[in-house]
Amino acid sequence: MNLCYTVFMLIFSSGRTDIPAFYSEWFLNRIRDGFVDVRNPYYSEQVARYKLTPDVVDCLVFCTKNPAPMIPHLEELKSKKMGLYFFVTITPYEKDVEPNVPEKEQVLDSFIEMSKILGKDQVCWRYDPIFTDEKYSVSFHIKAFRKMAEKLRGTTDRCMISFIDLYEKTKKNFPGIKEVSEQDQKFLAQSFSRIGFENDIKIESCAEKLDLTAYGVEQGACVSRQIVEKASGIHLLAKAGKSNLRKHCICLPTTDIGAYNSCPHLCKYCYANYDKRLVEKNFARHNPNSTFLLGESKPDDIFHYAKQESLRDRQLFLF
After folding, report:
1. Minimal CA–CA distance to 127: which of 175, 196, 40?
2. Rounded to whole angstroms, how far apart are CA atoms 237 and 36?
3. What is the DSSP string of 115-143?
4. pTM of the entire structure?
5. Of 135, 161, 197, 282, which has the fewest CB atoms closer than 10 Å, so is most exposed?
6. What is the pLDDT of residues 232-249, one digit of tens each?
7. Does an H or E element contain 4, and which?
8. How many whole angstroms separate alpha carbon 197 and alpha carbon 289?
């Protein structure tokens, strides 16, 4: 193997697929073995090997619509001495939009159970993407958001919201979808902010070009220095840097160990799936004992060890 000069101390599981919902057994096997192999999504023969150990990983960050399969393993993950932070996306859409997402009451219950195990500093509610149409109107969202916020009160201290971005994959899989108007964005932000205040949940926006501060919603970072430090119980060095994933994103940089076109939730708005048949084909290639999320190694693979560096400020432990 050669050396790849890239520094990551936050492992993201995952923006490309839902690892907790569909690949939790595989993820636990990777944690136990202490490494994972990740294909470059644009040059598939290039493979980066990442260590999954506390000497180089400061926090494991998860994004899921169904945390239930991961809950039985939380104590084991906590024992690995890496920070844990979970984003749980809970939206009010039905099977016409999110065909394979569990019933929302079940996801809300899982969120509450996870919060009891980890603490509210390590779980965040995501309400995104927000889109509106005749069925999912502005008033529909406000009513649904209030019901969810009331149930989640005391289990998290923040909710990240974002409005739908019309990626090419999204437009292909969700024909006719439109962006939310500025007027509706402002009204929803103001309404959500008021509901959040009533339920002790701070509402922040994620990578939004429209400044919603005047309506009670600050521009937030899903993965900020403060979040990682709270979740991990550490202090980070100043050189942690900033992600360049999206134009308005102010998150810390992470490395994603997932794979595109592999999430069986098949949500219509998803930017990570191209089509249903490809997802089904890829999911069939999954082996929970493989070092890869999908398939196995190939003879022409070019492996690199990723250069990883913990940004934990260890000086603090001397005093």
Report:
1. 196
2. 25
3. HHHH-GGGEEEEEEEE---SSS-HHHHHH
4. 0.92
5. 135
6. 888 887 665 555 555 556
7. strand 2-4
8. 45
